[in-house]
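Bit of a strange request maybe. I'm writing a small parser for C-alpha cell strings and I need a real example to test against, not something I typed by hand. Could someone generate the C-alpha cells for this chain?
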Amino acid sequence: METVRTGAAKLFGGSGTKRTRANSTSTTGSTAAGGAGGSGEGTSSGTGPLNAQQRTFAQATASSVPAKRSGPSAPAFPRPSLRRGPAEFQHEDYASMERPAPPTAAPNTLYMDLRQATLTPEAILAAAFSVLGKLVLGFQFFAAQKALALTFASSEAVLHYRNKTLGEDGPLLYPAPPKPADLIRLTLQGVPYWNRAGILTELPRLLSSFGELVFLAPMVTADGWLSDQWHATIRRKEGVTDLPPDQILLCGVPVIVDVPGQRRYCRHCASSKHYKNTCRQWQRQRSRQAQADREKALHDADLQQQKQPTNSSTSNPNTSTSDTTSTNTTKTTAPDTTSRQQPPRQPVHQSQVSNQELWTEQSNPPPDDQESAFNDAMDTDRQPDRASQVRAAQAVLTNSDNHDPSTVAAACAFLTAAYAEAGGAQQ
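Reply from user aminoacidic:
Good idea to test on real output. This should exercise your parser:
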C-alpha cells in the first residue's frame, strides 16, 4: 500500500506522505512552499480559512456582526417555575369526564388516551396488537383529541378489557361516558391559599350558577409551597353558555378568574376594559382597530366609485350632438323658465360608448322612441317644457328595468315635485 501511494505521488506530484489536519497550514506562503501537490491539497480540503480574494462579504463581516437572536429575549425578572400540585377537590367521575372520547359510529369501541404518551401512535398500535390480536377489528385515530379508538369484534371482549390497561404499564382502555360533559377550565389568580377550608366552602357556591365544580388544584413550587394561582374545572349546566365573571370575591379577597387563551382582566388598567394610554395591550388593540378602519374606508371608497351613475350621453360628445340635433328637429318646445334647475351631472367613469351600444348590452333594450327619453328631456341645456319632462319621467318609470337606478330615482323625485307644484297651483 505504501508503494502504491509513493508511485501515485511521483505521478501527480507531491511528497507522497499523507498530511494530517494538524500539519495543514492556512497561510498562502506555506502552502506554496509545499509544492504543487501541497497547494492543491490545501485549497481543496477546506480546513483553513479562505484567502482575502476568495472570501465573500458575508464571511468577511461575520466576525464583526453579532449573531441574531433565535427567539424572544428572556424576561428581566422571571417568575418562579410552578407545577400542578395534588388536587384539593376532585369529582368521583372526573377521570371519565376529562378523558377524550370523540363520537364514533362504530360499536364495541374502547378508547386510549395518548396525551401523556411518550410513544408514537404507530408504536402503541403495534404493542396493542401483540396483546389483543384478532380481538380488534380496526381503529380510529383522532389527532386533535390525541386519542385512539379500538373497535372490538364482540361485546364480550369489550367487557373483558373495559377499564383495564394493556399490560402492566400500558395505556388504559376506557369506554365513552354515557353523557358528554362540557368542561370549562379556569385559572384563578390571587387565591387566599392560607384559608383552604374557606376556599372549598365558598368557591363551589360562587360558581354554582355557571356550573358544577369538578376539579380544583393549586400550583406549587418544586418543593411544594403553595402559590396564589390555582386551576379549577367546572362542568357547565345544560343551556348555559355564560362564563363566570372576570373577578370574584373569595373569602373576602378579590380573585381574578381567567380562561386559558383569554385575558379578561388587565392588571395594568386594574379593570376589565383597557383605558390607560400606557397599557401595551390597549395600544396594540387601538393600532389594529385603526388599521381595520383605514382598510374599510378604502374599501367603501372603491365601492362608491364603482356605483356612481353613468351617463353615456356625456361620455361621447359626437353621439350627444347627433342625439340633440335629432331631438330638436322632432320636438319644438318653448323653454320653461319656471322649471327647477337640475343639479350638475356627475363625472362619468365609463368607457366612451354610444347610447345604442349601451342599450344593446342590456338584456331587454327599450323601444327606439323611448331611448334616453328622460335624459334628453331632463337635459338642462335644451330646457324643454314641463309637459315634456313629465312625459319623459313617466316613460322612465314605465320602463324602469331598462334604466339606471339613479335615473329612475331622479325621475320619481321629479314627478313627486311636479305633482306637488301642480296641486299648489290648483289651490
